[in-house]
C-alpha cells in the first residue's frame, strides 16, 4: 500500500519519536514522515538525518495543533504526553489513525472515552505499555508453546540513566503520583496491592537484585486477557543495569517467567530475559514503528475504527523478529524450561 500523505509524529525529536521515525524510514523508504516539535531547528535536524521527511512546529495547547489547515496527514503519533488530547481530537476530526505511548494505565480513561464517543472516527492504538507493548508481545511469543498459561511474572530493570530524556522522566513522575499501588491478577481477579505485597526483588541478568515493586501498568491486563492466565504480575526496578555494572552503556533487561502446561497437559515453565545492550530506546521505537506500520495497512489488513492495544493488532513472532533486528536477544535462565 502506498502513502502519499505524511505520518505526523508529535514529539518526533525525542528519543522514542526519532527512533521510531528512523525505523520507519528503514522499513519503508518511501513513507513520508513529518517530525513535529516545539523547536523547529531541532525538528529539521532530525528530518534532514532521515531524508524525505519534513519538519514542523506544534502547539499542543491548540485544537488545530498550530498546523496549517491545508496540511494533510496519514496518521498521528503522540510520542509525548498530550495532556489536552488535542492530538487525538485532531486525528478523530480528520479520520486519521492515532497512536499514543505516554498515558499509562492510570491516564487512559480519557482516551478510551474519546474513542467510545467517536467509535467510527478512526482506529486508536493505546500503546502506553512498557516499551510501547514490545514486552507484552515478547511474552506472548514465549507463551506460544503453552497449551495453558497459569502464571506470568515480568521483572523489568530500567537503568537510572536510561529514562528516556525529560519526557520519559516526566511520565514516570506522573504515573507514580497517580498511584503507588500495583495492579496484579491473582486467582483470576484483578487486585490493587500496596506494601509490603507490592515490594519485589528484581534481578538482572548477572543475578544482582534491585529493590522493586509491582506497578500499575497496561501490560498486566493485556497479558492476563490475551492468555487467560489467572495470575499475572509486573515488577519494576530503577537502578544500575548489568551493562553499566560491566562498564558498558546502560542495558535493557526484562525477565519473563511463565508457568502452565504444554498442549498435551504436562506441566511446563520457562524463564528467560529479553535484553538489549543499547537500553530501552530501541524497544520503545520498535513498538511505535510496528504500530504505525499496522495502522497504515503497510502490513496486514486495514484496521477498523475503535480502541486497540498492541497485542490485538500485532503478530508476536513478527514483533520479535523486528526486535532482534535492532540487536535485542533472549537469554534463557538455568532450569528455565
List the helices and strands and how they pair.
Blueprint: E1 6-10, H1 15-27, E2 33-37, H2 40-50, E3 53-57, E4 73-78, H3 86-93, E5 98-100, H4 109-117, E6 123-126, H5 134-142, E7 148-159, H6 165-178, E8 182-186, E9 189-193, E10 199-203, E11 209-214, H7 219-227, E12 231-239, H8 242-245, E13 252-261, E14 267-276, H9 281-295, E15 306-308, H10 310-313, H11 316-325, E16 329-332
Parallel strand pairs: 1-2, 1-4, 2-3, 4-5, 5-6, 6-15, 7-12
Antiparallel strand pairs: 7-13, 8-9, 10-11, 11-12, 13-14, 14-16
Helix pairs in contact: 1-9, 5-7, 5-11
Protein name: Saccharopine dehydrogenase
Organism: Streptomyces uncialis
Polypeptide structure, described:
This protein has 337 residues and is of the alpha/beta class. 31% of the residues lie in helices and 29% in strands. The protein folds into 2 domains: 6-130 and 284-315, Rossmann fold (3-Layer(aba) Sandwich), CATH 3.40.50.720; 133-279 and 318-332, Dihydrodipicolinate Reductase, domain 2, CATH 3.30.360. It has helices spanning 15-27, 40-50, 86-93, 109-117, 134-142, 165-178, 219-227, 242-245, 281-295, 310-313, 316-325, and strands at 6-10, 33-37, 53-57, 73-78, 98-100, 123-126, 148-159, 182-186, 189-193, 199-203, 209-214, 231-239, 252-261, 267-276, 306-308, 329-332. It has a 7-stranded parallel beta sheet with strand order 3-2-1-4-5-6-15, with helices on both faces. A hairpin with a 5-residue loop joins strand 13 and strand 14. The longest helix has 15 residues, at 281-295. The protein starts with 5 loop residues before the first strand and ends in a 5-residue tail after the last strand. The mean pLDDT is 94.
Amino acid at each position: 500500500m502506498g502513502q502519499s500523505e505524511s505520518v505526523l509524529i508529535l514529539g518526533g525529536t525525542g528519543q522514542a519519536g526519532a527512533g521510531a521515525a528512523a525505523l520507519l524510514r528503514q522499513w519503508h523508504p518511501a513513507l513520508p514522515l513529518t517530525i513535529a516539535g516545539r523547536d523547529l531547528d531541532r525538528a529539521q535536524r532530525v528530518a534532514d538525518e532521515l531524508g524525505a521527511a519534513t519538519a514542523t512546529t506544534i502547539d499542543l495547547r491548540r485544537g488545530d495543533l498550530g498546523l496549517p489547515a491545508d496540511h494533510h496527514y496519514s496518521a498521528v503519533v503522540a510520542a509525548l504526553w498530550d495532556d489536552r488530547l488535542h492530538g487525538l481530537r485532531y486525528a478523530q476530526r480528520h479520520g486519521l489513525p492515532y497512536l499514543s505511548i505516554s498515558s499509562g494505565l492510570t491516564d487512559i480513561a480519557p482516551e478510551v472515552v474519546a474513542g467510545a464517543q467517536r467509535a467510527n472516527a478512526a482506529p486508536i492504538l493505546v500503546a502506553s505499555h512498557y516499551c510501547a507493548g514490545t514486552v507484552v508481545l515478547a511474552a506472548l511469543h514465549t507463551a506460544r508453546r503453552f497449551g495453558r498459561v497459569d502464571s506470568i511474572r515480568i521483572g523489568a530493570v530500567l537503568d537510572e540513566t536510561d529514562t528516556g530524556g525529560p519526557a520519559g522522566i516526566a511520565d514516570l513522575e506522573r504515573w507514580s503520583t497517580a498511584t503507588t499501588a500495583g495492579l496484579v491478577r491473582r486467582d483470576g481477579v484483578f487486585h490493587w496491592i500496596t506494601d509490603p505485597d507490592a515490594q519485589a526483588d528484581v534481578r538482572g541478568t548477572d543475578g544482582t537484585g534491585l529493590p522493586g515493586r509491582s506497578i500499575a501498568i497496561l501490560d498486566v491486563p493485556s497479558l492476563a486477557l490475551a492468555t487467560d492466565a489467572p495470575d499475572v504480575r509486573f515488577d519494576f526496578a530503577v537502578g544500575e543495569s548489568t551493562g553499566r555494572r560491566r562498564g558498558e552503556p546502560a542495558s535493557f533487561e526484562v525477565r519473563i517467567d511463565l508457568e502452565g502446561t504444554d498442549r498435551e497437559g504436562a506441566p511446563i515453565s520457562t524463564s528467560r530475559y529479553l535484553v538489549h545492550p543499547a537500553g530501552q530506546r530501541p524497544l520503545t521505537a520498535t513498538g511505535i514503528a510496528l504500530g504505525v506500520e499496522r495502522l497504515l495497512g503497510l502490513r496486514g489488513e486495514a484496521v477498523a475504527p475503535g480502541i486497540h492495544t498492541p497485542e490485538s493488532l500485532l503478530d508476536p513472532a513478527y514483533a520479535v523478529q523486528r526486535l532482534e533486528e535492532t540487536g535485542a536477544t533472549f537469554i534463557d535462565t538455568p532450569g528455565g524450561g
